[in-house]
Amino acid sequence: MKDGDRWMRLKEEMLDAAASLGIDKIGVASADPFIELKQILIRHRELGRESGFEEPDLDKRTNPSLLFDSPQSIIAIAIAYPSKLVDPPKSEPGARRGIIARASWGQDYHTVLRDRLSKLEAWLKERVPELRVESMVDTGALSDRAVAERAGLGWGGKNCMIMNDELGSWIYLGEMITNLPLPPDKPLADGCGECTKCIDACPTGALVGPGQLDSKRCISFLTQTKGFLEDEVMRKIGNRLYGCDTCQTVCPVNRRKNWTHHPELQPDHELVKPLLVPLLTIGNREFKERYGSMSSAWRGKKPIQRNAVIALGNFKEKSAVGDLIGVLQDDPRPVMRGTAAWSLGKIGGEEAEAALQAAVLKETDEEAKVYIERAMAEMAECSEMESI
Ligand code: SF4
Ligand code: SF4
C-alpha cells in the first residue's frame, strides 16, 4: 500500500471509530503555523482586548512546531453538550436562583476531553506504534478554535464560537498534535451570512465586530474575575453566576439543538440553577464538594459568591436583605462587603439604609467604603424621587 493510501485509510477508520470513542466529530488540520491568527492576536493585544487568561507567548499559540518536534498533523475533536434544562426549578420571589453557563454543566469538560483524547491516542497507538502526540484542551498553548476551524469542525461564527449545522456551537473542543501525516480536511464555508443576532444581543457590546471579542467587556470573562465590578457591568450581569450564553442562545444555528448523549455532561439542576442565598455563606469545603467537579469552580468560590450578591440586587430581592446585611457586616473580603452594599442600595428600604449607615462608619477598606457611600447616595436619590 502506498504511504498516502495508508494514512488516508487510517483517517477513515478513525472517523468511523469516533462514536465508539465518545467523540462527536473529528477533523484533521495541517500543522503549519497559523500566520493570519498571529496577526489577529497581535492586534487584539495592541487594542487591550485580551482577557489575561490566555497563553502569553503568541509564537507558541500559533506555531505547532514550537510545541512538538516535527509535527505532521493536528487532530481536532468535538464533543457536544446539552443546552436545555428539562423542567428546571423556578426562580421566584423568596427563592431566587442564579444561572451557570452551559459550558460548565456536568463534569468539567477538561476532564471529559482529556479522557476522549487519551482513548483516541490509545486507539491510534494500537495501529501506529511509532505514534507521538501532544494533546491539548483549552489551557494548552494552541488556539482550540483556530485548529478546529482549519480542521473543518465548524466555521468561526460572528460570536467567536466554532459551529456547524449538525451540532451548532454547543461543542467542547480539544486537539492533538501528531507525527502522523494524515490528510487534512478543508475548512467549512462561513454559515453566518447576513445574520447579526449575536452582535445585536450582546448585553455589553463585547462583540465589537464579526468574530471580534473585547474580552474585557465580555460578561463571560467578567463573571470569572474576583475584584470589584463597575455599576453598569453589575446591572448587566443579571443573575449570571458564571459565564454568559446569550450570543449562543440567540444563534439560529443552535435552534432546537440539545445534546443529551454524554451522561457525564448532563446538568444537575440544583447546581446549574442554584438558590442564591445559600451561596452567600457557603464554606470552602461544601463548595468543593458541591461544585468541585464543575469547570466553573476553577476560580474558587469568590467570583460565584460575588455574582450571587449581584444577582440578588438585580432581582431587588427584599427577602435577602438580612442575608446581604450579614455579608456587609461580617464578610472578611472587601469585595464581598462592597458588592453587598451595591445590592442593598438596589433593593432599598429602611433596614438596608440603616445597615449602610452603620457600615460606612466602621469600614476600613477604601474601595469597599466607596461602594457603601455610592449605595447610600443612590438610596438618597431614590427617596428624593419618591417624595416629589
Ligand atoms: Fe456578549 Fe455574553 Fe457573548 Fe460575551 S458571552 S460576547 S457578553 S453575549
Ligand atoms: Fe452567526 Fe447569526 Fe449565529 Fe451570530 S447569531 S454566530 S451571526 S449565525
Describe what you observe in this structure.
With 388 residues, the chain is α+β, with helices and mostly antiparallel strands. The protein has one domain (1-276). 43% of the residues lie in helices and 10% in strands. It contains 17 helices and ten strands. It has helices spanning 3-17, 35-46, 58-62, 109-127, 144-150, 197-201, 219-222, 231-237, 246-249, 269-272, 277-280, 284-291, 302-315, 321-330, 334-347, 350-362, 366-387; strands spanning 25-29, 73-80, 99-100, 133-136, 155-156, 162-163, 171-178, 207-209, 212-213, 240-242. The protein has a four-stranded antiparallel beta sheet, sandwiched between helices. α14 (321-330) runs parallel beside α16 (350-362) and α16 (350-362) runs antiparallel to α17 (366-387). The longest helix is centred in the last third of the chain and has 22 residues, at 366-387. It is elongated. The model has no long low-confidence stretch (mean pLDDT 94). It binds iron/sulfur cluster (2 copies). The site of one iron/sulfur cluster has 12 residues, from α6.
